[in-house]
Every structure is written in structure tokens, then in C-alpha cells.
Amino acid sequence: MLLSIQDLKVAFRMGKVDGQMQRQLAVKGVSFDIPENSTVALVGESGSGKSVTAMSILNLLPSNAEREGKILFQGRDLLRTSLSELQTVRGREIACVFQDPMTSLNPVFTVADQIMEPLIKHMGMSRKQALVRAEELLNEVGIPEPKRRLKAYPHEMSGGQQQRVMIAVALACSPKLLIADEPTTALDVTIQRQVMELMARLKESHKMSMLFISHDLGVVGEISDHVVVMRHGQIREKAPVAEIFHHPQDSYTKALLACRPSLTENPARLMVIDDHIAGRSSHEGQAKPKDPNAPVILEARGLQKSFFFKTGLFGKKEFKAVKNVDFQLKKGHTLGIVGESGSGKTTMGLTLLRLHEPSGGQVLFEGKDLLKMSGNEWQKMRRRIQVVFQNPYASLNPRFTIGQTLLEPMEIHGIGASTAERQARASELLKKVGLDDSALNKYPHEFSGGQRQRIAIARCLTLNPEVLVLDEAVSALDVSVQAQVLNLLKDLQDEFGLSYIFISHDLAVVKFISDEVLVMQNGDVVEQNDTPSLLAAPQQEYTRRLLGAVPRGYQGSAAATTA
């Protein structure tokens, strides 16, 4: 057995109250094994303790963490090793790949510097030897022109390339165990597929084991051999992957599987964890068709956005990010925008909102061109068209309480007759997105990523908008919270007649919420159709490739359930 975790408990000291140290128990007696040459997946919602469990292995936890139990790595108890011994294990025998490569890679060091560091430190290589090996590693993880990319800085690479660099850094010293913490969450489906296949291939070629942490059961089903399901710091179920998918025993595991949007079904609502555990009906029938004669509320005609870059002393180069995009959005309908990273879908959404100034075209809102409005006219119009961004860590002011965050837009736009009325509306919206009044006096850093996104959606709804541009608004959420938010968006649409532009790389989510889908590639619209027709019979090879990259969970034989 490569690694054995036995009765692990992790608590965080929260400070003293009346002279007594308060502790919050995050991991409550967790035990599982990772065999050699195997992939074990840790699955659960945000706050389940899966990342805390994984980071306990190398003690990559805050200083207020306390660990008990045993973590046996090839017979050594890592809980009882000295810091100097642990530092020889980190990177050399056990390596990590984290969720967001931009926060893991040092922005002031080149790619070469960051790959060479563990090679020099742990392997005793000279800089010349380490540079040769760094180029080999970039080639191994599929970075084109590896010699040239060694001189690049992280910001000069795409998200998928950054994650490949992180994998190259992790594999530099040929570790026996790779801990991968949500390594594909922020990537589009085709890049996600490439990274998954890359990690599976490298696991085999390097003869290493992998601890794969994820909330996406579709990904887990394709990459893992064994699955450990966690909730509230405890293990609810552990079994081979085939058994988890075909014969789950625990109600929580069954609920996680049931929450996933499907490419084959079209329910009116998605199940959430509590629905399944309480035994409530799985579906409320099929989704109701929308009014095909609904008026058009937003229309783009020949929308263009170009960026210009200096070349040489006086030269200038044009990059066309959005090229003559046309679409119509009907009142009460949802238009899904899909495509790979760099396809122009987010740039198109931001140009609609004049967060990027357009290079050409028209955006008509109830017949008025938004792109020609004066500053005062546009300021008044902003209340009616709102945006929810992808990254809740960057979109919430860290110095504002949640109450201040929700009250500020209402005060600016004169919504609510008094502060008390605005506070009541803020409380009501928090409840709608699955939070309670206690959140009002807290700050963003006190919430998980999923909770922050719900707060961002609540803030957006304070202004009673008519059109929402949702830019990857549920991509960072675990399946149950994602289901809650998607159900909420449908409820709000039915209640208020909201119209959505829903930008996403997750085609299963797009299928659930969208009435029409627009597919973008390299700034162009390559295909557009109503959702059922486009997904059932895509006309373009690019669309078929996007569909083929969607993780579908474990597809092996139901009989393959032996450990």
C-alpha cells in the first residue's frame, strides 16, 4: 500500500471565548488507502473536507490546524515527521497540482525557472541539466514549441497551458503520488478532456498513483479506479468506481449522481441533495416550452470587437476577438453561448454590456442601440441589464460586508424606500440563493467559492434586471449548489420574465437552461439553433467535437464492480 490514512481528524483553532480555545472539526475520523499505480478520487460538495484531507498529507494547512491519526506513506507516518523530513518528501515523492494555476505559478518567474527549481533542489541537477529536462517535460505534457515556451511567463499562456505547466512542475522529480486538487474545474470541455487524458497517460508512464479531488462526478467516473465520497468531514461511502456509479449504497452518493445535468434528459427542475435524501420526486415533468412568439428584447447585429497590439516602434496589429455576431434574445428566453477558451464568447458578452467598447455593429434593447447611448442614458440602462461574472473571488469587494455589497446597488439606483426595506430585500435574496441572514455581517473571505458566487447572483438580482448576462456563473459550483442556482434562475425567469445570455463551457448545463444555443469558434458564430435540434444533430464538426469532450462518468460494464 502506497499511502494509508487512518482515523484522520483535523481541527482548526478559532480563538478563545471566555478563556476557552474554540476548535472547529473539519475532518472527523477519515480512513482510506491509496494502492500503488491507482487513482483514488475524493468527491464531495464544497466544505465536505476533501481538500483539507488531501492537504493534510503534506501539512499544507494553515498554522491554526491540528491533526490527529496516522498518514502512512510507504510505512512512514507523515504526521510525526519533522519539517525538514517533510520538505524532502514535498515535490520529490509527493507532488501537488492545484485548481487555479495562476495563483500557483509565480508571475515574476519564467516557466523554465519554475520547472527547474524542484530539479535543482531535489535532484541535484545543474542549471544546464535542469533546463534540458524542463524542455523534455514541457514536450511530455503537450506544450507546443517547448523550447520557446520555456522563456514565457505564466500570463502569456492560456489557462490550459498554465495547468500543463503545473503538471510539468509536479512531475519534474517523478513523484510516487500526485495530489490533483480540482485540476480541471476552470477549463473548457475540450481542454478538460485533454488534461484528463494527459494525466491518465502520465500516471501510466510514470507508474505513479494519484489522489484526484473533484466535485464533478462525470470527470471522476472517467479517471478514477476507486472513489471516496465525503460529506461534512466524514466518509459516506468508498468503493471501486464501477460500484459507485452502478450500485451506490449511500443516499448521499445517489443524490450526488442525481444532481448532475444530463445530455439525454430534460427535466423541468434538477434535483438537489436534500430532495433526494428526503425521497422527494426526482423530476417535475418535462421542461415547459417557451412562447415562440415572445417579443425580442435584445438583438445584436454585426457585433465586432478588436484588440490592437503594438508591433515594433510604430506598427500596430489587429486581433479580431468577435467577428460580426448576430442573434436575437426573446423576452423570457435563454440564449446559451458555448465554445472553447479563446472562442470570443466572454468578450462578446462584455461587449454587449460596454465593458469592452465595441469595434462595430449594433446592440438593440427594445429597439434602442445601447452602443450609441450617452453616459447618462447608459447609466440608467445598466440597472436593466446586469452581469454575473465567472470568478466570485475577484467580483466581490473584500472590504465590504455582504450586507454592504447587496445594499450599495439598491442605494445607487434608488430601489427601496428605506434602509430597512433594502435590508429586508437583501435577506430575502440571500434565502433565495441558499444563504441566511447571518451572512449579512460577514466578509467575502469567510465564504467558500460556491457561496461567493451565490452572493454575486443575489447582488445582481437586487436591481430587478430584465436581462442577465451570466458568464460561466455556475462553473465553480459543486453539483448540488449548481442545481440550486440553475433551479433558482429558472424560477426567477418564470416569475419575472427574465431573459438570460448564458455563457458556459458545460454543454449539459446549457442543455438544461437554454432555449437556443449559439456556438462560437475564433470569434465567429459557427452554428446556431434551438437547443434540442443542435444537440441532437449538430451540423458542424467543431460542435460535434465539443459534445464528444463532455465527461459522461463511468461508462464501463456494470459487472465490473469487484475491488
Automatic annotation (TrEMBL):
Q: Which family does it belong to?
A: Belongs to the ABC transporter superfamily.
The protein's UniProt keywords, in alphabetical order, are: ATP-binding, Cell membrane, Membrane, Nucleotide-binding, Transport
The record ties this protein, via SMART domains, to: AAA (SM00382)
Q: Which Pfam families match?
A: ABC_tran, oligo_HPY
GO molecular function, a single term: ATP binding
Question: PANTHER family under this entry?
Answer: D,D-DIPEPTIDE TRANSPORT ATP-BINDING PROTEIN DDPF-RELATED (PTHR43776:SF7), TRANSPORT ATP-BINDING PROTEIN (PTHR43776)
Q: What is this protein called?
A: Dipeptide ABC transporter ATP-binding protein
User: What InterPro entries does this protein map onto?
Assistant: AAA+_ATPase, ABC_transp_ATP-bind, ABC_transporter-like_ATP-bd, ABC_transporter-like_CS, Oligopep_ABC_C, P-loop_NTPase
Q: Does the keyword Cell membrane apply?
A: yes
Q: Does the keyword Membrane apply?
A: yes
Q: Which domain of life is it from?
A: Bacteria
